[in-house]
Amino acid sequence: MRKTKRATIVDVARMAEVSAKTVSRVVNNEPHVTEAVKTRVHEAMRALRYHPNVAAQGLVRSRSYLIGLVYEKPSPSYVVELQKGALERLHGERFRLVVLPVESVTEREDEIIALLRSAALDAVLLAPPASDHAGLMAELREVGMPFARISPTRLLGQGPSVAMDDVAAAQEAAEHLIALGHRRIGVIKGDPSHAAADARLVGTMQALAKAGIPLRTEMIESGLFTFDSGLIAARRLLALDPPPTAILAQNDDMAAATMAAARERGLHVPEDLSVVGFDDSDISRVVWPPLTTIRQPVEEMAYKAMDMLLHVLKSEPGQGPELGDVQLAHELLIRRSTAPPKAD
Amino acid sequence: MRKTKRATIVDVARMAEVSAKTVSRVVNNEPHVTEAVKTRVHEAMRALRYHPNVAAQGLVRSRSYLIGLVYEKPSPSYVVELQKGALERLHGERFRLVVLPVESVTEREDEIIALLRSAALDAVLLAPPASDHAGLMAELREVGMPFARISPTRLLGQGPSVAMDDVAAAQEAAEHLIALGHRRIGVIKGDPSHAAADARLVGTMQALAKAGIPLRTEMIESGLFTFDSGLIAARRLLALDPPPTAILAQNDDMAAATMAAARERGLHVPEDLSVVGFDDSDISRVVWPPLTTIRQPVEEMAYKAMDMLLHVLKSEPGQGPELGDVQLAHELLIRRSTAPPKAD
DNA sequence: TTGTACGCGTTATCAG
DNA sequence: CTGATAACGCGTACAA
């Protein structure tokens, strides 16, 4: 009832005594408008509290100014950093971020495509494991929807992406343990549907091989990047005879679970068991002792990926240099969860 | 170049040999369409991979099918649960969620209003502390943008909201400590700009008053709901002489920090110091010992708030029963961070 | 420098 | 039950 209709460009034009087109020019900062007119229009806009109707703009420009963020039930800290980075880059831009968590990219590919199409997105940011899904990328290319990928491990050279070197990072983490004197090193892998899990395992194995340490299969357990899955995996590793003197978990949540499992058995970290995590998420600083971990610059990766996406969106189609695969630096953060093993 | 234009309603109409309006009827499940025609249209839609253009729909219906979520730098676990609840309710609906983290609601009210208007949202979900901001609510009402509030503490009866009883919850937590025999109880308040911080303090003081325990001002420290702020506050409390035997932190992040501060001083939890948190966030289960805490049903609150918002959006304006202020139950979860105080 | 006519894709109105 | 026509608010192409 009381809901007064929003002012349109015509209302502004009438008030400023110009044509609608001129208002449009002012709104979009187009040249060829006298300062005097510009001022008049601005005043009218303010008086009427005018805001362009995005739907109408989108209709003629075929743009929605919406960018989707696709991710699949990762750890909370990961999602938050992802969003933080993406949103930071979007600050001051006209684009808005639509969050699109999906159940399982591999299971229902068409559903996801339908979702993206009906959501009328201008572009999407693909977080793992969607960022490694060839079918999804093909579909996106077919419908002409630009995308940028975060932490892809395969199919590089197919458009903008931002990643870190998971292999090298895992290798460094393992080398740290080896340098401390550890020989019996257990590994808790992450979700098998994330290719990063394999990459990190490869890095670990390379470090062990270089040191001439055989890695027995019973020293490798698989988790799902969650605390609970890590707990189960850690319990199994600690039940081995002899148990590992160090455990390398592929993310911080599972590393925290490993510390909890150690406590269950009366083991002290790091005296009886060294633990290394991955990600440098909040959790790594909250647990005791603070976790030695690999800093994965998730926020920066999201920022950079969004930056590349905006580049694509703003350059004329077919124009501009092809954006490639960017790699950001990681860092081994040695804190207090690792120490030399006890003498046997 | 190759980017084929999307099929429009007219293309479908041509293929199905009907008028555009009929296709529209089928798309929107309107009555008065023969089954035969309906089938023909559906076939054409599938063949052309037709998806309605949301911008065009939005233009004539003056709807964007976008719902905003406004929040202000809260803890990661809180944001994630908030989004989870909101998105779960949105599942299967046409509406999409746009995330709108803001710097400070109080500082730049007009900026936020401008943001909401230009973002062309159909409605917004207000999380604390925006949910307590009278000016913001007034503005939203003026531009006719429906909103629902999460955890408001003031200005009730002004539209749909979902909350829990912070006063009663804090009181229960304090009573638990008192029942264990604690008399020297420290409090770490949350961000002063969140009204919940005051409510929780009131509850704590009520419990203490009932037990005839005086609460000295030096036993109250203020934090910002973050781990780091909690660390500083906890250090000050533990430096008191005599120090508290129990500390009640107003969220789990600060409670975890309290445990870390205790360790710094060689104190054991819960033998030397009992710690109670608030929220039952992931962090409460990850730390050791697991935190005694108040379960705040954030996800359910967001779900319910979104549900009410959709009700408003779907009912004709001015019609339908006024939606009120809903209160969800909290729960004291007694875990292992609380125990009777040592005999002095 | 400014204005006019038209179209973007969809739905509402009202006629058939 | 179905279809023609006119909006919705804005930008493009072109003219003045």
Structure description:
Two copies of one chain form a homodimer. Chain A has 344 residues and is α/β, with parallel strands linked by helices. The first copy, chain A, is built from 13 helices and twelve strands. Chain A has two domains: 62-164 and 298-328, Rossmann fold (3-Layer(aba) Sandwich), CATH 3.40.50; 166-296, 3-Layer(aba) Sandwich (Rossmann fold), CATH 3.40.50.2300. The first copy, chain A, has helices at 9-16, 20-27, 35-48, 54-61, 76-90, 109-118, 134-142, 166-180, 195-210, 227-238, 252-264, 282-286, 298-314, and strands spanning 66-71, 96-101, 123-126, 147-150, 161-164, 185-189, 220-222, 246-249, 274-276, 293-295, 325-328, 331-333. The longest helix of chain A is centred in the C-terminal third of the chain and has 17 residues, at 298-314. Chains A and B meet through helix 4, helix 5, strand 2, helix 6 and helix 11 of A and helix 4, helix 5, strand 2, helix 6 and helix 11 of B. The structure holds a DNA duplex (16 and 16 nucleotides).
Could you give the distance between the termini of chain A?
Answer: 81 Å
Integer tally of domains of chain A: 2
Beta-strand percentage range of chain A: 5-15%
Structural shape of chain A:
elongated
Structural class of chain A: alpha/beta
What is the count of β-strands of chain A? 12
- Poorly predicted ranges of chain A (pLDDT <50, ≥5 residues)? none
**What value does the Rg of chain A take, in angstroms?**
26 Å
Enumerate how many helices of chain A there are, as a single number.
Answer: 13
